[in-house]
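idk why but the lab printer keeps eating my pages so im just putting this in chat instead. protein + zinc ion:
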Amino acid sequence: MSQQGYVATPPYSQAQPGMGGYPTGFGAPPPQSHYGHYGAPAQPFAPQAAGMLKTAASGPSGMPPSPVSVQHGSSIQQNGAHPQKYPPLPADSAPAMSPYGQPPQRPYHSMPQATPPTQQITNQMSAMNIGGYAPNPIQSPQSPTSSAAPQPFQMSPPTPMGHAALSPQGPQLPPLSACPPMAASPPVGVPPMVMPNCQPGSPLMGGGGFQPQAGPQGFPQQPGSYGGQVPGSQMAGPPAGAFPGAFPGGAAQMAGPPQKKLDPDSIPSTTQVIEDDQVKRGGQLYTTNLRGQVPPFVTTSFSVQDQGNASPRFMRCTTYSFPCTSDLAKQCQVPLATIIKPLASVPKNETPLYIVNHGEAGPIRCNRCKAYMCPFMLFIDGGRRYQCGFCNCVNEVPVQYFQHLDHMGRRLDMYERPELSLGSYEFTATLDYCKNNKPPNPPAYIFMIDVSYNNIKSGLVKLICDELKTLLDQLPKEEGAEGSAIKVGFVTYNKILHFYNVKSALAQPQMMVVSDVAEMFVPLLDGFLVNFEESRAVINNLLEQIPDMFSDTNESETVFAPVIQAGVEALKAAECSGKLFIFHSSLPMAEAPGKLKNRDDRKLVNTEKEKTLFQAQRGIYEQLTKECVNQGCCVDLFLFPNQYVDLATMADVPAHTGGSVYKYSNFQVQVDGQHFLSDLRQDVKKSIGFDAMMRVRTSTGFRATDFYGAIYMNNTTDVEMAAVDCEKAVTVEFKHDDTLSEDVGALIQCALLYTSISGQRRLRVHNLSLACSSQLSDLYKSCETDALINFFAKSAYHAMLAQPVKVVREILVKQTAHMLACYRKNCASPSAASQLILPDAMKVFPVYMNSLLKTPALVGSAELSTDDRAFHRLSVMAMGVEESQVLFYPRLIPVHSMDVASEAVPSAVRCSEERLSDTGAFLLENGQCIFLWLGQACPPDIIQNFFNVPSLAHLGTDMSSLPELDNGHSKKLHSIICAISQQRSSSTKMVIVKQKDRSEMLFRQHLVEDKGLYGGASYMDFLCYVHREIRQLLT
Ligand SMILES: [Zn+2]
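predcted complex ->
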């Protein structure tokens, strides 16, 4: 097995010797090329040698049912993109001080420092070397940049520029109600302040522009404004408390000429874009027969019919049209990536995947690249041979698989075989695909409960034990199976471990204690992992006894690594894969391997060493990860901390074994019990595959280079996952190593080998064909903002383990400006530089990017707990596109004015404080929490209807649930919450927030269009800043 170490997270960045006992040679990793990525030394992007160096996995397969008829076409659907023009933005647009008493203005540190003109200004986009991800960006004087790109408002008529089709017809922005009275550049033949055809809400048809009066070159330099253009000498010094490179706060500090408040409706609205897509494509059947077709948004409800390409539920791309050459890719810097959720749930109205069995010989695969039989294979020579769509190798068709071709050259049995006509299907795997050539045993779930003082006292142990009595009846089972094949086992621990024999023949469970935690072993084999059905009486007896057994414990010290060790040893002994459910509360400080100490040091925030806060302690945890992956042992961690627990280290094994981490700080049964139980229920019940190996193959000219997720990489191509469940997604980035052809397009095949919950070895295959174009405009038209932000979040959160967080933020901002500047230069009609022009498919990208910059992980605030930041970082790493979309742009729903008679969820409003009202009530959901925010002047009848109390003052502050009352408003509110919960894969915590209460801070940090509570710009300010950067790039 070839070993090249460019991979993954730092602790695992070295290639390891092979593991896993798989006989296959998953092939030689291709040569590397880095461009524009975190941490990579800034290197010129040189196209790689064209050689194909793909290899194979070994593989399995049968006789399929008949899918629907399919038509393959190579036509590319354009989804009507066109340039979007937005009025220039005032540099200072933040609303005046909020009525909420924002925290003091913080430096806006998410922005890069001023860039020396020599570095940033070049006339040739193609010559730019921006976003080279140099670890040390420009060190200009540590002063706030100054600013304010005076951005005149100029609407120029759209002029065709080799893109006749690009007529602006999309939602054009209404003119701003006020514009800063200054202009950077003199009006270009346009009378100032003229806006013909420029009515609010109507498309800007042309002719004139809105040109603020020409003024001096921009704003006078003021502290607090944006900009990087002015020489350092003109910059004001940093405001007190600003750290190096910080941006001064914003609006409120600016001393510019008085401005009227800018109409926030004038900048692109995410809620509007979401609604438009829902109107345009909602409720439709999306058929996947076209190459390069852009699917509806993740927020749109639609059904999928597989006609040759994988459903967007399984694979979603950042763009559906790849640039033909690496030069074009480098030029635009739009990441080429796909987010794969290989086991995604399929709605009931869509066809589940067919299972194909190719018999003893296993699935049919290309001899050279080992790609699996799929619709991209071209049958020739009367059906006796086929040409591989990935490597072009011509293969013999096995005798038993031969079929005649029709006059179109298609096999006569094409529509009877899923692997010839569908994008996604499964093969049954043969023994070649099993560890040690033996069929796997069904997996096991081991419940490992910390019974130290805190967990006993809080009532948690009793809560868990009571729940398991009923929950274990709902272990997942194979479709059609009578019972679950999954075995269960139980361990309790504090600083020693207790194993339980729950064999069905026993009258009473038996406890076996292991106190030598340094040499962990499993003291019993027979009777530890059992079938719940058979051992129900003994298990219930045990669950009844556990809380009592430890009720008078004084033990507060715990171990942790030995617990994982015990779990993986138990699975090894039973020769099965499985999952550990660990319920743990404190920093493991007892003398034992993996003992941790408090290393939280918030003084490191915003220093070069900040990254160490997020790096896991290595040593035994690294070793455990390898053992777990090797055994197919997934670790799920339920944490109940009252203080710092070094989450970065404790969650390290889960984060590399396809596990999930849940965190309930200061857990109280009454407040958090239900939320925890619903998380536990969903986790136990969800569909999952074990001992998984994923391989992504591509057609010639490009290849997968980077992988992000709850995964483990032992080499550069094989993605190992101890387990993968229906929510876990892997984000894969591609780079060119040759030229792509417009005729052939770009083909991707993702193959996931895994063990099902009943112990069957399966191979799931997803195929996707993308368009290729030598026109960048095609790429921009086919972009998917939600997928882009998923990619950027994961790559940034990965990069922050190796680079200062500040550098990562700067790279993100630069790349944003670069992508948009390249569009402007190459795809948009010529127009005044002062005008902000965004690609239609990316017009709300800036708001998402700004939200990402303000997330706990990236914001760099010492006020946030280190564990919270690490937790946020890790939970995003395994997210799919739906989850990251709503996390970065939460849904804010007014519920005070809802139509009780209607079944629909009320339309969301923009995620900004400005949309709230004192007399209103709003729900905010981000996939993790649902807040119910109540304005302080919320009418008593609303409060009465929702809570059955006469006024807001009667509401307790610690409410975590909503009573179900017998009135229309209460029922409607519950139905909305229920609809939201059903859309989300994980359970959401309910938080009730009164305006101006202390807890309002929690809510307000999710208002992503506003200035961040812990730093970071408002949407408007960010857009201004990016616009200014774009203008510099274009100068
Ligand atoms: Zn091939």
